[in-house]
Specification:
With 104 residues, the protein is mainly α. Helices cover 69% and strands 0% of the residues.
């Protein structure tokens, strides 16, 4: 470990936090620990943001599938048709779906 000497001035509030993590350690060790914890928390925050976006995308897709099922059960009349290609409502839905652009 490189011994880099830096002089820092911190506020009383920051000093209370450092003292909380100092417990039997040197001041510089407590500051170093807090720096690494801050870096870890930043990385964790980025991961949480990324996962939140993925969950939002997943929720959109689940909502779409739910709407599709509602469409099927409400007006597709699939119980009387053996060939899905003969179902005009289903074909219209597929055509409209293909026109929309979804981000994948």
């Amino acid at each position: 470990m490189a011994n880099v000497r830096k002089h820092i001035t911190i506020s009383e509030e920051a000093n209370k936090i450092v003292e909380k993590y100092q417990t039997g350690k040197r001041f510089s060790d407590a500051v170093e620990r807090l720096i690494f914890m801050g870096e870890y928390n930043d990385e964790l925050g980025s991961l949480i943001d990324r996962n939140t976006k993925l969950v939002e995308r997943l929720m959109f897709k689940v909502s779409y599938i739910s709407d599709l099922l509602d469409q099927f059960y409400s007006d597709m009349e699939i119980e009387n048709l053996l060939n899905p290609k003969n179902n005009k409502a289903l074909q219209k839905f597929k055509t409209n779906r293909d026109k929309l652009k979804y981000d994948d």
